[in-house]
């Protein structure tokens, strides 16, 4: 996939550049200015104002993403996911910069049986989801030139993400039990980053968009795909339900995102999730 970059006159800034999506953005757009957490805390209004200039395009990948821990740390979750985006939005509005902000499928309650569209009613069931929804609203309210892009189930196939964990467990265990009662949109960080760069070059797009790899899967199906990709027997992955893995934050049972708005805006669809797993594993081999 070829990444399109913003017009040469616009500076591209990436906040949260040390995270999964931020790293891939910087890899695909090496001339972008990346700010990791230690370079720029997005809740620090003076520091944020000092880096944003007129005409900039800021892609905010910084977030508090510890979904379970958020249940016991709501203040930290809202600081990272509401206050930080609000600070960025205010700074962008003041400077005359554009803000592209990432959000999540977890803003939805998970009760649908068809993909969630951008105009569907939200209703987060977790502190993380509520904090992200508050951040969406702050961005859209405070920065006239801003967009919110919801994505889901992001992985790179590295570090401790789900795909990397399945690769490790394939080597360590004979069988692995994986939940089969949550449906979502697994999304390869590289594909998402390429989509965000295409969006950054297109100011004339709707303010709320969904960007995920196409199709839907359960965690069980994603785990089986990982096993297949490395030539392991996918039947070593066994389905179980969420009660086998009690978590502090109850995940939505169904949080598939529709890319209708993304396609309608003339943006390139992200490839099907299964093809993306193949690409991710050949890249991480
Ligand atoms: N990962 C997913 O499955 C998923 C799904 C749906 C939506 N999203 C959204 O996609 C975006 C990117 O997610 P990701 O997977 O790349 O997350 P990630 O890997 O957890 O990266 C987030 C980065 O933000 C940094 N950060 C946290 N608070 C900050 C602050 N106040 N100032 C500056 N940086 C801060 C983190 O630093 P530390 O590590 O030091 O805290 C981390 O480097 C987020 O908005 C997330 O909500 C992710």
**Approximate helicity band:** 25-40%
CATH topological fold name of the domain at 12-153 and 187-214 and 251-271: Rossmann fold
| CATH level 1 class label of the domain at 12-153 and 187-214 and 251-271 | Alpha Beta
Overall shape: it is globular
How would you summarize what this structure contains?
The protein is of the alpha/beta class and 285 residues long.
Task: Describe this protein's structure.
By secondary structure, the protein is α/β, with parallel strands linked by helices. It has a domain at 12-153 and 187-214 and 251-271: 3-Layer(aba) Sandwich (Rossmann fold), CATH 3.40.50.720. 37% of the residues lie in helices and 15% in strands. The chain has helices spanning 20-28, 45-51, 74-95, 127-142, 162-172, 189-200, 219-229, 260-264, 273-284, and strands at 12-15, 33-35, 57-60, 98-104, 146-151, 154-155, 176-179, 183-184, 187-188, 208-210, 217-218, 237-240. The strands form four sheets. A six-stranded parallel beta sheet has the order 2-1-3-4-5-10, sandwiched between helices. It has a two-stranded parallel sheet with strand order 6-9. Helix 1 links the parallel strand 1 and strand 2 (33-35). Helix 1 packs across helix 6 (189-200). The longest helix is centred in the first third of the chain and has 22 residues, at 74-95. NADP nicotinamide-adenine-dinucleotide phosphate is lined by residues 15-16, 18-22, 37, 41-43, 61-65, 80, 84, 102, 104-105, 132, 151-154.
